[in-house]
User: What shape does this take?
Amino acid sequence: MGEAVIHEDHHDHKPTGIGRWLFSTNHKDIGTMYLVFSLIMFFIGGAMAMVIRAELFQPGLQFVDPQFYNSMTTVHALVMIFGAVMPAGVGLANWMIPMMIGAPDMAMPRMNNMSFWILPFAFTLLLSTFFMQGGAPAGGWTMYPPLVLQLGDGFPFLIFAVHFLGISSIMGAINIIATVFNMRAPGMTFMRLPLFVWTWIITAFLLIAAMPVLAGAVTMLLTDRFFGTAFFDAAGGGDPVLFQHIFWFFGHPEVYILVLPSFGIISQIIPTFARKPLFGYASMVYATASIAFLSFFVWAHHMFTVGMPLAGELFFMYATMAIAVPTGVKVFNWTATMWRGSMTFETPMLFAIGVLFMFTLGGFSGLMMGITPVDFQYHDTYFIVAHFHYVLVPGIVFGILGGVYYWLPKWTGHMYDETLGKWHFWASTISVNVLFFPMHFIGLAGMPRRIPDYSTQFTDWNMIISIGGFGFGLSQLFLVWVVIKCIRGGKKASNEVWEGAQGLEFTLPSPPPFHSFTTPPIVTNATAHS
Amino acid sequence: MRDGTRVTPKKLFVFAACMFGFGYALVPIYDVLCDVTGLNGKTGEVSQVEAEAKNVDVERLVTVEFDTNVNPGLPWRFEAAKFKMNVHPGEIAEATFVVENISDKPVLGQAIPSLVPPLASLYFDKTECFCFTAQLLKPGERKEMVVRYIIGPELPKDISIMTLSYTFFRSLDDNDVAVSETKFIEAINTKS
Assistant: This one.
């Protein structure tokens, strides 16, 4: 690409004022909006977690009544999953995928605008339930009937919020697939795609396959409550257990929807800072696809205790164990990428290594629970809370944070403050382990989840966990500080940003022009990322 | 804009719509699986003639226990006349239940059966049951109800005891069903 092209791009018409954001069809602006929205939701969901940890600091009821406590756990989960993690992944995809494949923008820019702007409305519906008769959803984010049907006026708001979130993410997913399938630069073959793009294609397919099933399940809840159907109502011949099957048919692919983008991000970061190409590129692609495929056949491991025939329990146990194989391939490849690399440890790399260590730890406790007979002890205790927070926070949130640090200089044109970044990483890593590791112990000792009070023998660990929780919450203020400081100024970032950075996004100036790659670049074996 | 950019999204939207339908298709698929595996203890139904044609295995005795529950939305009392009985596989047996409406209104109730162990439900059939239809009880009315059942002689040898559980719900066809549900939800909300 010639200098003249870039020069012209700089003078391209850029809308101003609020209209730039409301009517934006620019993938970079929409990506920014997704990321900012996700950060706001991260703090709203985090505030709810702080209420939970404050209540659990001591046994007995201190601050909130049990109904409100249950609303906190329920809405914390919904906000973090659908408001913080998923939009962060879509935001990164929006910003990076067109630049990584040499496309000028997403395939359907107007739909892109719509899929973002649905989100604030969906969360307004969800969060408004706090001010309604009967309060916010309190029956758990899994919305099991018959409990969820007893929610007050907020019930239809919960259902429609889930519908909107589903529509938003399906549209986002369709856009991503359409972009990657049709708008790659000449020479950018599928097996030359950066791994972040690959993980997002697979995530997008999971979204399109799983989200409509969730939409169906919540629609059945809606008609059960208001229109006299009896899908889950035993009085009319329905079965509440059926909901659990349908929900987890969505729910298990959903956990890979959350984690695969994080896998993609660290597959970009580790080669950069190890200054080596990614080890086993093709096996990474196939492993990701296998994980996604297998994720549709393991759902019942979330409900081993519900009463299933022995053959069913065994099938779901073995299928669950099988997922450890492709996941193991990925962990091996990341480790092998670092082997004998010229490694440096800038903040993105620290977060990536954090993911590698702590996601694997969460994976191990997952394997423990995949073993049917022992799961009967772990089910609905703090052990499962420890497991899914290990994979979600240091596994996924750290991946997203690593991605933000990795690409922040590219987005803003300034290097972020490395010292503050390292403070953020170490404060987060220490506090996240103080927060979640002891949950394994109290879980094995029998402390149940979703209860605002506990037996006094759990007091010491709960105090330590709460201190870790407050520490983790405060540590995230470093992130806000770093990002604001980086937007306002700092050392000028070069095109490559990082010494070992590869890929088309690092051929563009930092920050990239408002419209990039209006003339597609030519990709050859030598310039391909893999 | 390349052709693909128009075609790909259309295909994907169709795929998403199909998956929405698949969510609903899981409902009948689940029912079939329950029938095949005995999951959830859904018991079968046979005619009197079919039941009489079965051979009685006088060598074996199987214990059947009865468990009765009333859903909180229903103002009824519900008990088994005898809590357990011993039967031969292949023999037509009869159990009696007593139900009483303790409210001052007529109420329509529906009983839902469930049998454990689930595997046994594949061999447990009824020729007559009060659970086949909804039951109407006048205010204060007390009624004896019968279930006539047969355990197939093919019942696996390791099953010697089973529990038949009934839960009475307010029928969805009951006139007061909407009222009672609203009251129930209100009660929960005011309690919190």
Observations:
- DSSP finds 15 helices and no strands in chain A.
- Chain A touches chain B through 50 residues (CB under 8 Å).
- Residues 1-11 of chain A have pLDDT under 50 and may be disordered.
- Residues 1-193+514-530 of chain A form a domain with the Cytochrome C Oxidase; Chain A fold (CATH 1.20.210.10).
